Amino acid sequence: MEFDLVIRNGTVATASDVFKADVGVRGGTIAALGAGLGAGAEEIDAAGLLVLPGGVDGHVHFDQPTGDGSVMADDFLTGTRSAAFGGTTTVLPFACQEKGRSLREAVDDYHRRAAGKPVIDYAFHLIVTDPTEQVLGQELPALIREGYTSFKIYMTYDALKLNDRQILEVLDIARSEGAMVMMHAENADCIAWLTEKLERTGQTAPFFHGVSRPRVAEREATHRAISLAELVDVPILIVHVSGADAVEQIRWAQGRGLRIYAETCPQYLFLTADDLGEDGFEGAKCICSPPPRDAANQAVIWDGLTGGAFQIFSSDHAPFHFDGPGGKKVHGDKAPFRCVPNGIPGVETRLPLLFSAGVMTGRMELTKFVELTATNPARMYGLHPRKGTIAVGADADIALWDPARRVTVTNAMLHHNVDYTPYEGMEVTGWPVATISRGAVVCRDGALLVQPGRGEFLPCGLPAPARPKSAPAPVLPF
Ligand code: URP
Ligand code: ZN
Ligand code: ZN
């Protein structure tokens, strides 16, 4: 046999092209693209299907220690399983440093948590919460060189946030080592002040979570993050951007030629503040930060996606049960919003929601969909061209999509370990029917076909987009 696997008669799409081709896979990588390829040990007829690069979800939280009594509902098995059923073949969760502890400890602990579980490939981002001399001078540079080439820093949350001086110091290391910095941009003092004011008047229901984190608090932090990055001359990626005002700041920075990248997520396209205002505690299901905004704001996020302000579209899957242990009700079903774990599930619904409301409505080109959900995240985090595209030599990470399949999203049909989805009842057109990772069919027609632990850890390269503006010209790979 010429190939291990041949996918025949499908329509292949990359971030630049859509074309009819067979895909020949050998040894886990794509060996040939063309018409009438030779025989494969396994063959899949993809007539009527789209053959897309497997999604790269650049922002997920699996089995991440929280420190507030809550427990994430998904580990590396259930999280990657859910990702695969949603057409994703690579995920990047976060190894989070605990203040007072070393970064290395966090990485070692996170590898232990992952061991034997993932069904698809994964890399780690770091979260730097305690940039001591040791961390900045030794650990962080060493870890970057070992393949942990992106890290997140927070401008809010007491347990995680850095002050401006610390941010500058961390940005400086990213600049000298060539790492990508992901910024959570919300002004902590604005949020704390508003939260206390709301609590004094008894306004503590889930709805007020959104009130406590207004767009202006995100705008201010976004502008500050951009300014600090400009001062240091280092690119940054602003994650989970929710508000029109923050988008304005990002466009302003990009217009000035700064290397400011941005990510948004399904919750800012498909949920609004009204979802936080459901009766009783129900709105806690949609508590995440930044919070969902309103319908007019959703339109601005769509424009940012189609018009180029955003480079990547991630899930920010942060899974907590609603009723189950350690979840949204960990402090009771009348807990003030301040005590409700932040985050919502979405690793499996990320791609179908965007495909349906974007590609199938004509709002977004198929190539743009691939760019935002696979190719660009792979580039931003040093995984391209091994991941995020369909090309000879790339890993055979492929999702076969039935663009005509109509699906009503229900939690029962999803494969995460969470007891709800915020997207219950939404109707979509287009769904991935098979997901292939390094040539192995991970899931097909609703069945999981591989064993836990087959997913490999991916050390990341230095991402080209993280190069400072004033950096010397790169060495060309030819
Ligand atoms: O509410 C959210 N987004 N939780 C996940 C943690 C984060 O800040 O991304
Ligand atoms: Zn965040
Ligand atoms: Zn997150």
TrEMBL record:
Matching Pfam families, A to Z? Amidohydro_1
Q: Where is the Amidohydrolase-related domain?
A: 50-442
Q: Which UniProt keywords apply?
A: Hydrolase, Metal-binding
Q: State the Gene Ontology terms under molecular function.
A: hydrolase activity, acting on carbon-nitrogen (but not peptide) bonds, in cyclic amides; metal ion binding
UniProt xrefs under InterPro entries? Amidohydro-rel (IPR006680), Hydantoinase/dihydroPyrase (IPR011778), Metal-dep_hydrolase_composite (IPR011059), Metal_Hydrolase (IPR032466), Metallo-dep_Hydrolases_sf (IPR050378)
Cofactors per UniProt? Zn(2+)
Q: Describe its PTM?
A: Carbamylation allows a single lysine to coordinate two divalent metal cations.
Gene Ontology CC terms: cytosol
Q: Does the keyword Hydrolase apply?
A: yes
Q: Which residues carry this modification: N6-carboxylysine?
A: 152
The similarity comment for this entry is: Belongs to the metallo-dependent hydrolases superfamily. Hydantoinase/dihydropyrimidinase family.
Q: What is this protein called?
A: Dihydropyrimidinase
Q: Per the UniProt entry, what species is this protein from, by scientific name?
A: Azospirillum oryzae
Q: What is the lineage of its organism?
A: Bacteria, Pseudomonadati, Pseudomonadota, Alphaproteobacteria, Rhodospirillales
